[in-house]
Design a protein that fits this description.
The protein has one domain: 3-Layer(aba) Sandwich (Rossmann fold). The protein contains 8 helices and 7 strands. A 7-stranded parallel beta sheet has the order 3-2-1-4-5-6-7, with helices on both faces. The radius of gyration is 17 Å and the shape is globular. InterPro entries: NAD(P)-bd_dom_sf, SDR_fam. One of its GO terms (molecular function) is oxidoreductase activity. This is SDR family oxidoreductase. Keywords: Oxidoreductase.
């Protein structure tokens, strides 16, 4: 375990290669944690690591891993815990799909969404909890679900069901691990300016934001700030919580 990791604590961020994952890494780094980003996109991870290092964030390595490969994911998490310690784990894993009613959805596509959006989170949490049980001090897991994980969404049966499952897994695991000092929470972002919507015309983003009580879409940085708070000592008596970051959409 490196000296820097021991002093500041180490955060593993799965799904670090997108807008929200990038922002989470920066927020945790700004909070003084050593950050280890992990995702499938090696090129994006290399760019992120360079950016983090340039801004003074400790980033000793980046891990290229397919979250649906149980053995590879489990091994990656165990290696981080062994080499750096594991203080914080963020599971920002998920895959959407084209809106289609369940009755018309291809079952292979359904299974693919569930494998990435729910099962990979469960496999990751299993390894993270095992690693954290061997540690001491403040330890926190934050799962990135979605506002679709607490409500319904037309044509998004697989994604919505998987995100609901992440919320259930978060709450149940928080109960199971509470007395061991491992806090487990989730955030449920609403419409966020990230991913495919960023390729759309600004008028589309404005229209989507118009359905939100606050009158706009959220930013990746606003999601990251919520994650950083749940990972910090400031939320020391918070576990099993599902924090909506959606501008009031699910209110």
């Amino acid at each position: 375990m490196t000296a820097a990791s021991t002093e500041r604590g180490c955060a593993l961020v799965l799904g670090a290669d997108g807008f929200i994952g990038n922002a989470i890494c920066r927020a945790l780094g700004d909070a003084g944690l050593t950050v280890i980003p992990a995702a499938r996109n090696a090129e994006a991870l290399a760019r992120l690591r360079d950016e983090l290092t340039a801004t003074g964030v400790g980033c000793p390595r980046a891990i290229t891993v397919d979250a649906t490969d149980d053995a590879a994911l489990t091994t990656a998490i165990a290696s981080v815990a062994t080499e750096h310690g594991l203080t914080v784990a963020v599971n920002n894993i998920g895959r959407g799909h084209r809106p289609v009613p369940l009755a018309e959805m291809d079952l292979a596509a359904f299974d693919d969404v569930v494998a990435v959006t729910f099962r990979a989170v469960a496999v990751a949490m299993r390894a993270e909890i095992r690693a954290m049980r061997a540690g001491s001090g403040a330890r926190a897991i934050v799962n990135v679900s979605s506002s679709a994980g607490t409500t319904g969404a037309p044509g998004m049966a697989a994604y919505t069901a998987a995100k609901h499952a992440v919320v259930g897994l978060t709450r149940t695991s928080a109960i199971d691990e509470g007395r061991r000092g491992i806090r487990i929470n989730a955030v449920t972002p609403g419409p966020i300016e990230s991913g495919p919507i960023m390729t759309q015309d600004p008028s589309v983003r404005e229209q989507v934001g118009g359905y939100v009580p606050m009158g706009r879409m959220g930013s990746a940085e606003e999601v990251a700030a919520a994650v950083a708070w749940l990972a910090s000592p400031a939320s020391s008596y918070v576990t099993g919580a599902v924090l909506a970051v959606d501008g009031g959409r699910t209110a």
